[in-house]
Amino acid sequence: MNTRAVIETEGLTKIYNAQTAVDNLSFNVLEGEIFGFLGPNGAGKTTTLLMLLGLTEPTSGKVRVFDLDPAREPIKVKGVIGYLQENMGFYGDLNARQMLRFVADLNALSFEVADERIESALNTVGLQDESLKKIGAYSRGMRQRLGIAELLIKDPKIAFLDEPTLGLDPDGTNRMIELIQQLCHEKKMTVLLSSHMLHQVQKICHRVGIMIKGKMVSQGPMEQLAQEKLGVGKEQYTLEEIYMKYFQET
What we know:
This protein has helices at residues 45-53, 74-80, 96-106, 111-125, 140-153, 170-185, 198-204, 222-230, 239-249; strands at residues 5-16, 19-30, 34-38, 60-65, 81-84, 158-162, 190-194, 207-212, 215-220. It is of the alpha/beta class.
């Protein structure tokens, strides 16, 4: 993993109608890491993601994504980020290949490049045998894997994954965790993972950031957070214990 920060925020703040959604947020994500972005509903995580994507402007503060300003260079930022939303929208009457071809066309890829990326993406997510089936007949796990394939068509440097295992059965969850690790280790992609599934985050993330009431209350490797908050060493804690300690104190 590199030590270069590819996402950086400093004093990032967003206020909606006198309501502070994100409050003086400063954190970074390092190139090549899987960063767990944690917090309860309403903590400001989604608003933060929207600012990183350039879909809403901050009220104050600074944000850089691969040295780009999302508010002033949103198109360039979208070119380096792939985003898997919690509820992906697909055209149910298309099959996977047609859907990925549509995405390739939207990204102005040549026919040759599109063909290569579609085959590679289907192979990566394990949907080759199901690629001609209508998406409307896909299970939730298959749709989530198709979402990863759609992300891969863009060949982004960073993947934002919002609750990628939500609603999946154990087999689907394991497949998705393996895919996320593959994005990082084989595709050399930086991953920002937002999830409430803390045992999964503990399993695969290099560092985590805990956000509560619009503030980042802590960030770092889980061993460091465990030592600071619980006074215990490696293998003597769960991320849930760390998280709940911060949540209760806040």
